[in-house]
Predict the 3D structure of the following.
Amino acid sequence: MRQVSIVGIGQLPVQKAHSQSLRQLGATAVRLALADAGVTKLDALYSANMLADELQGQKHLAALIADEAGLAGVEALEVGAATAAGAAALRMGILAVAGGTADVVGVVGVEKMSGGAATPILAKALDAEQEVPGGATLLSQNARLMQLYLDRYRPPAEALAHFSVNAHANAAGNPYALFRDRHVTVQDVLASRLVSPPIRLLDSSPICDGAAAVVLAATELAGRLTRHPVHILASSAATDRFRLADRPDPLALAAAGRSVAAAFAQAGLSPADVDLFEAHDAFTIMACLSLEAAGFVPPGQGWRLAVAGEIGLPGRIPLSTMGGLKARGHPIGATALYQVGEIVLQLTGRAGPCQVPNARLALMQSVGGAATTVITHIFGA
Amino acid sequence: MRQVSIVGIGQLPVQKAHSQSLRQLGATAVRLALADAGVTKLDALYSANMLADELQGQKHLAALIADEAGLAGVEALEVGAATAAGAAALRMGILAVAGGTADVVGVVGVEKMSGGAATPILAKALDAEQEVPGGATLLSQNARLMQLYLDRYRPPAEALAHFSVNAHANAAGNPYALFRDRHVTVQDVLASRLVSPPIRLLDSSPICDGAAAVVLAATELAGRLTRHPVHILASSAATDRFRLADRPDPLALAAAGRSVAAAFAQAGLSPADVDLFEAHDAFTIMACLSLEAAGFVPPGQGWRLAVAGEIGLPGRIPLSTMGGLKARGHPIGATALYQVGEIVLQLTGRAGPCQVPNARLALMQSVGGAATTVITHIFGA
């Protein structure tokens, strides 16, 4: 199995509603990544998206983006895992390069949530027969997790708000973030609207448009393509029981535990080696649970890292270093590719005001549905 | 890169409307394939489906089927390429095993088209901005190809009907086929309703429900798992310009040409080596064009093979040997997995009345949209 590196990234600013069409967003991100890698061709293009079939009436997106980007002819397939689609597509790109089928592969994520009502379509990540008919949405399931957490561990009322405050503070330094100029305090979070108790508006990532892409290459070729290769040290996907109600302990995030344990084993590393963690902070509770499931702290203690400032840029485990899903934005299918782009900037010392000092190793996680699917990647400079 | 083999298959009878739910169909196919392979665990499960997000309100299908099949915990991702989804998922399974990431992988395809109006959702494989607003559907685009073919090459009026007659004749011997007892003659095809001129009802594959699965393993392990391993000699995906209108010659099926040429190169084989061809005969014109694009005959001559009986079981290039999309049925996401199952039966001498004598090598093709995406696999016993 060959080692795989990232040799190019492309990001578009996340916006509430982009003027570009879905295909233009995707193709622009691909072109930016190709230019960054200094290549004009790909052996394959894998795409991630969750909502376009309903919001834009468009399936078959990989081939469409390939054509729009001037790459017609190339292998082009779609990969998904609900809200973790971007990481699933990244994983397929890694498999193609690692196995030797392809030398240079593009992975693109795109989402145009401004096209219509996203929430009911997002809920299709849940069980359409046994959860959705009762009113379940991704928001309500995360609210259940948060209430369970508050009841079991009794953290201070403002504890989880610190995850949002940190994300917003970091987004200020990221030119691609949706919320670049919105200073948020703990008081702001606690005063924001209860959207699904106990989740407040500022506990939640926003509905938005975005596209991001990366170019992967065999590590043996990476040095010829870029001065800044970032190496993929691990890639692992796992699932949990599909429904929250079927899990012995929903707060354990069993899929995250499995996925991260497998990733650390692949890389021969442990949580102590991680310099920054791009978690799937779609909701503050998910950031907190992810820290615990990844082994940075024992169960029930994730919030303590946030309250103590240990998740800030100079902290013990910097989180959402360029805004995270909360403040960079969470254009679903594109999100993981934004995470990768940010990690590449961090590990190559190009993260500007968001730079984590001496960042050498990054952990990234993507969550599908209510943590039914979790995909973990580890990157090293 | 490791060699990959098929060590288990599972098929459910294709029906107009199955009583089992989507997840039950998928999980049953997985269980059958696991039992056939004699394994109880998988390293990953990849799923294919095209319509469930709208017809059943369900996304995140790989994880759902994994749970329903008692495999919760396993890596489970969705792979797609419009109507070629099944072959795309198969390809990801091959990449995972070939690269050494996984030893034993399941691939499942499921579709429950009886859930609602499939045609407008299938049309989302076309360009939602520039084709669909003008009324284009997969049916109408294939009708354009057929009219173009009839105008350019002027075959006899009944020429293409022979593809349908052959498919129906072969389906009679396949216990999983939708049309097991419908004897169809050339006259029947020509007398059937014009659904989109010049395409008639009996030129077209049916709307139906089905699920099929396969288990893949590294060839070095395959001998321990089954007495009947079938080896994957090539896997290749390619695209064309997305829109028919942008192609210099739409009848050339450039994606098919690219994909099949790459596959033959991978396997070190040529069309002369092929004992049977499971083509994507969603419409008779597509069977004809696929024979030409694969190099079995020059452009404009595909129909001659059908008229001469060379596509029958004892013919030069047996086609749709167990009914094909036309008569076994075309439950979209499941179709390619049915094709694989049938090829395994053929290459291991277990195809019963459908058996192609001395079948050692099989070509399989899957078409996404109006031949925008074509995925080719080659199998050997």
About this structure: Chain A has two domains: 4-117+208-230, 119-202+234-380. Residues 4-117+208-230 of chain A form a domain with the Peroxisomal Thiolase; Chain A, domain 1 fold (CATH 3.40.47.10). The radius of gyration of chain A is 19 Å.
